[in-house]
Fold this protein.
Amino acid sequence: MTVSSSTHHRQDDSDYFADFTRRVMAARIPLDGSIELTHRCNLRCVHCYLGDQDAIRKHRHEEMSTKQIMALIDEVVEAGALNFTFSGGDPMVRKDFAELFTYAVKKGLLVTVFCDGVLISDRIIEVFPSGEQAQIRSTLADGIRAVIAQVLFKRVDKKGRCAALEILIATPAVRNLIRE
Ligand code: SF4
């Protein structure tokens, strides 16, 4: 009985998402948006395809401004997107990262950040004036769903490296830690 009921719900969900996808595609609504905020990064991985970080830093003035990126987020929301990804380089090296992140979250987007993990949390909070930090911690705690870190480890069985994913789910305990 339970199995049959749960199977029924799965079928309902599956029908719903199939119908949802069909409608979204028919209306040509872009559900996902993403932007490479910068090519700068705080690390210098040997496998990085972005190239020489010193050269990249010399061109930082060519990056989009905070206002331009906010306008882009407005356009993405207007177009119907639900998900938005900030990537880089490491998007957190931008001083306005926290501002852009909270802007996108407040616009109702489910935000994903591709970063190397080094600057998470304290770096985001520190860029705000001390009087605003409690509010920013609270916004981040409410907005974050998970932190996924990909690390490359040296193989012990043969030459080369292999990727490992570390996934921190934003449970109530994690959200409380961020708030504190
Ligand atoms: S963390 Fe990513 S962007 Fe940064 S240097 Fe390494 S591969 Fe490149």
Remarks:
- The CA atoms of residues 105 and 143 lie 6 Å apart.
